[in-house]
Specification:
The protein is an alpha/beta fold. It has ten helices and nine strands. It has a single domain, classed as Aldolase class I (TIM Barrel), CATH 3.20.20.70. The strands form two sheets. A seven-stranded parallel sheet has the order 1-2-3-4-5-6-8. Strands 7-9 form a two-stranded antiparallel ribbon.
C-alpha cells in the first residue's frame, strides 16, 4: 500500500506532514536545522508601563513570554552562549537564530535596539534573527532600523495579534485594536520586501468559540503572512488568567477541541505560509492547566493524525 507520504496532497513538504512546517522551511532556507535561542534584553510593553495600559496581557508571566530566556542582565552574546550550550546537548548543529522574545522588542529607543541587534549579528554562525513585538510599536525610526537589519540577514518580525476580535483583545488586556494591528502590519510590509512577517494567534482565549478562532485564521490568511504561529492558551501560575481559572471563570480547551480547531485553521492558511508553531509552551513547574499541553509531541501527532483521517491539508479551504 502507498504510504502517507506518497499520498500526501500538500506540496510544501517532503514528509507526511500536511502543512508547511518550520523544520521544512529551515532545511530549504539554511540547509538544515537551526538552534533558535530565546533572548531577553529588558524591554517592557505599552500595556504594562501605563502608556496604553497596566498589568500586561492576562496570560503573560512576569517574563513576558521569555520564560526560557537567560537573565536580561547578561549581554546578548552571553545569553546566546548559554542557550547554545544548553540546546546543543539536544541538537548537534552550529547554525543559530537569536530570538529577541521577551516582551516587546521594538519598544525601546532605536539606538538601544541597534546595539542589541548588531551584537547578535556579529556572533559566529548566526544565519537569521527573529524579533518579537507588537504592531503598534513600529515607529518610523524602528521600521528604518528593521529594514537596515533585513539587508544583512534573514529577518523575521513576529507580530503578536492573538485574535482579530476587539472584544477579546479588551478581555485579555491587549490594549490595541485589530485596525491598529493592520496599520502596523501594512507599514512593515510596505517598508521592505526582505522582512519576513510572522503573525501569532492564540486558540482558547476567554469568551471565544470555534467560529471566533476560525474567523481569526481567515482574517490572518487574507494578509498572506510569511509565517503563522498557532498557540494554545495555557495557564501560568501568578497570572490574571490563573486567577480566573481558580475562580471557575475560565475553562481551557480539551486536546480534542484544540486539535479539531487547529486542523481546520490550517486548511484556511495559504499553502506558502510557514506554520511556525502548532501549540504553546509553558514551563512545567509553572503550568497550571491544561496539563495535556506538556506532551507537545502528542499534541502535534494528534493534529497530524486528524488531518490524515479527515483528508485535510494546508490551503484546502483557503479562498
Amino acid at each position: 500500500m502507498p504510504t502517507q507520504r506518497e499520498t500526501n496532497p500538500f506540496k510544501n513538504t517532503d514528509t507526511n506532514k500536511r502543512y508547511y512546517t518550520y523544520d521544512y522551511y529551515l532545511r530549504k532556507t539554511f540547509g538544515g536545522k537551526c538552534i533558535k535561542i530565546p533572548l531577553d534584553i529588558g524591554c517592557t510593553c505599552p500595556n504594562i508601563d501605563g502608556t496604553r495600559g497596566r498589568g500586561g496581557c492576562i496570560y503573560c508571566s512576569s517574563r513576558g513570554s521569555g520564560d526560557f530566556a537567560a537573565a536580561p542582565t547578561l549581554s546578548v552574546a552571553e545569553q546566546c552562549a548559554k542557550g547554545r550550550e544548553s540546546l546543543q546537548k539536544k541538537w548537534q548543529v552550529d547554525r543559530i537564530i537569536p530570538y529577541f522574545q521577551a516582551h516587546t522588542n521594538t519598544y525601546a529607543p532605536a539606538e538601544f535596539l541597534r546595539e542589541k541587534f548588531y551584537e547578535a549579528l556579529a556572533l559566529e554562525n548566526v544565519v537569521a534573527i527573529n524579533i518579537a513585538t507588537r504592531a503598534d510599536c513600529l515607529g518610523d525610526d524602528i521600521v528604518e532600523l528593521l529594514c537596515e537589519i533585513a539587508e544583512q540577514t534573514v529577518l523575521t518580525v513576529e507580530l503578536g495579534l492573538q485574535s482579530t476580535n476587539d472584544a477579546t483583545a479588551a478581555v485579555i488586556n491587549r490594549c490595541h485594536t485589530y485596525e491598529e494591528f493592520l496599520a502596523g502590519y501594512r507599514k512593515l510590509r510596505a517598508a521592505s520586501d526582505k522582512i519576513r512577517i510572522c503573525v501569532h494567534i492564540i486558540n482558547g482565549l476567554p469568551g471565544e468559540g470555534r467560529e471566533d478562532m476560525l474567523k481569526t485564521a481567515r482574517d490572518v490568511a487574507a494578509l498572506l503572512p510569511d509565517e503563522v504561529k498557532i498557540h494554545l492558551l495555557h495557564i501560568i501560575k501568578g497570572t490574571k488568567l490563573a486567577n480566573l481559572y481558580e475562580r471557575g471563570e475560565y475553562t481551557p480547551l480539551t486536546l480534542e477541541e484544540y486539535a479539531n480547531i487547529t486542523a481546520e485553521q490550517i486548511t484556511l492558511l495559504p499553502p506558502d505560509t510557514v506554520v511556525g508553531r502548532l501549540t504553546g509552551d509553558g514551563a512545567a513547574d509553572d503550568l497550571v492547566a491544561p496539563l495535556w499541553s506538556l506532551r507537545k509531541t502528542n499534541v502535534i501527532n494528534t493534529i497530524d493524525k486528524l488531518m490524515y483521517a479527515e483528508n485535510l491539508w494546508q490551503g484546502k479551504n483557503n479562498c
